[in-house]
TrEMBL record:
A GO MF term: ATP hydrolysis activity
EC number per UniProt: 5.6.2.4
Residues binding ATP: 272-279
Protein known as: DNA 3'-5' helicase
Organism of origin: Amycolatopsis echigonensis
Key words, A-Z: ATP-binding, Helicase, Hydrolase, Isomerase, Nucleotide-binding
Catalytic activity, as annotated: Couples ATP hydrolysis with the unwinding of duplex DNA by translocating in the 3'-5' direction; ATP + H2O = ADP + phosphate + H(+)
Source species taxonomy: Bacteria, Bacillati, Actinomycetota, Actinomycetes, Pseudonocardiales
Pfam families recorded: UvrD-helicase, UvrD_C
Amino acid sequence: MPNLAFAHSFWDTYDRLEKQVKSGVRKAMQKFQQLSVAELHADKGLHLESVDNARDPRMRTIRITDFWRGVVLAPDDGSDVFLLLNVVPHDDAYGWAAKRLYTINSATRAVEVRNVVAIEELTPPLEQAASEAPTRLFAKYSDTVLRDLGIDDQVLRAARAITDEGQLEAFGGLLPEDQFEVLQFLTEGFTPEEVYRDLVVERRPAEDADDTGDSLARAIVNTRSRITLITNPDELTEILEKPFAAWRVFLHRSQRRVAYRVSYNGPAQVTGGPGTGKTVVALHRVKHLLSRSADTRVLLTTFTTALAKSLRENLALLLDDDDLLARVQVTTVDAYANRVVREISGRAQSPITDADERQIWRRIIRTQNLPWSEQFLVQEFRHVVLAQQVHSRKDYLLADRRGRGAPLQQAQRVRVWPAIEAFLAELSAAGTTTHLQICDRAAELLSTANEHRVGHVVVDEAQDLHPAQWRVLRAAVEPGPDDLFITGDPHQRIYDSHVSLRAVGISVAGRSSRLRVNYRSTAEILTWATGVIDGTPVEELSGDGTDSLTGYRSLLHGKWPIAEGYSSARDEAVAVSELVRTWIDQGVRSNEIAVCARFNLTLDKVQDQLRADGVPTERVKDQPRTEVEGVRLASMHAMKGLEFQCVAVVGVSEKVVPFAKEITPADVDRKQHEADLLKERCLLFVACTRARDALAVSWSGTPSPFVPERKVRRPSR
Ligand SMILES: Nc1ncnc2c1ncn2[C@@H]1O[C@H](COP(=O)(O)OP(=O)(O)OP(=O)(O)O)[C@@H](O)[C@H]1O
């Protein structure tokens, strides 16, 4: 019986195939497990046939349905592993298969694929253009150095013609994977010795180091980062049934480079737009850190309880080993701080809720007859007093209020400080505190309690963390190599926390990488959603300069999002329910559909309508288990970090997004006004980028000014 293996290019399309095509794939795959090689060739239904003019003579197609073909690499060296490469519509399959060539990398011994036709066509014009250029990107490396790193003749010729990084990136998708990665590493300033150590040695199987007799089967086993080999029938069923766990097995080049880098000489940061795999990278980094020593302990942490729950579930999927899992603490920063204080000081903490906090501020505004809003005082306390650890009137009068909008005159500060004191006195009288104060207490205690520290901290969704939360993370781990690994996206900052990481003792200079390819949403959804941000500059994650979405893209295609207005909220709820039912009729599971809104009240209306129409629903805040059926309903804030096949963002009307109450009037404070507007833009951006295949945005009355419909251009295919 032959063996079967799947290349990562297969999953890129498989996940999105319709049910009937998927079932065709499953049936075809079973034949590979049931028939001998001779029987496979003779099977009429499978129709295993060679491809005319294929550059790789091992290329074959198989019949999946009338309209779909599978593309397979058939061994011709006496080995027995068939490699499934792709599932492609009939008319495109032959073109796809004819241009690709699979080879074995001379250094890593892994299977790589290139678009050989495109490289041949593009190299001569590139050489022509380069003849005029003053420098070439790889001029300083000799042919021998490049060959030792696995670069072969064709790639060497192309590399010699490349003059800058932009050209390399543009060419990259055509080049064999490991070779492209070697070239990327070199352009990023790594020495050939470092590339050899971090990439070649890491991938090349030790036992094969001197073996030159490569067979396709052996190389497939060596290509664990891009190919999964099926060793028993149950595994086949499992892998085809659970396609979205593909991230466990395949990391894309840029992801693997950052997640499995042997070591960083201090804190490292990974940024990237929504869906670029930052969480996936954080999880794999944990796996890598655990593999380095048997007693490594890791704190994997994030912002909200829902995100921590999802990290915990996904880490269990990735590690699948209780002993490894026991060495990782997965929790929110606040819960971690709380636990540290409880364990070290022996006293349980009772933080107040946001609602209680606001109530106290309202009372203080009344009794002290203050001219500021409760929102202003909440922010002043959070972003100045707690952020900068201001403990006295004198310090407050001198405090730097950078990022807080209009300056406060001394006379005004003199009036604010008694309000702050009154607030702190109320907390103390009631025996309570705030989460952020607990963080500071934990940081203080950790600085003298080494035994409570962990070996490494990995932080996901870092963009909303407050300086006090950063301080506790800084204190949780001894400064040094691989102390902190931070992932986040400043375009998804929805709580207005602005931090200079350097100021809290975390410098990521020289250890910062960016992911640019979105693996979640279609290019159509991404283009539309990016229009919500409308090019507004956003502050970098580390607080140094601004961040942009330049180069951010998706390789997937689908339908253009639906953006639709209704005359009343009732009509909108009816239409949304109808759309949800259409998605379900098309085969989408109800738990893969989300409806989200700025307010819970809007969700109540849609929920009533869905129930009346017989559609099961679940509120995300109730934390239903992933497999429980029911359309998920969530506020925009609660959508952070989640994803669904289809998403309806409802109630996106003029008065709701941005929500007037959250926006400081421009005449009161222009800077804060702009910051508040950006926060609301980011919120809508987060909600829209949760959708994988379908996005619908709706409103009643006048649409939100952030709805970009008419301004953005559809991506070309
Ligand atoms: N290497 C991979 N192979 C398969 N799927 C992947 C891979 N990397 C990411 N994905 C998928 O892309 C989606 C987005 O990944 P992830 O949640 O890690 O992105 P993110 O950058 O953290 O997103 P966000 O910032 O929007 O929360 C997930 O469905 C994930 O499984």
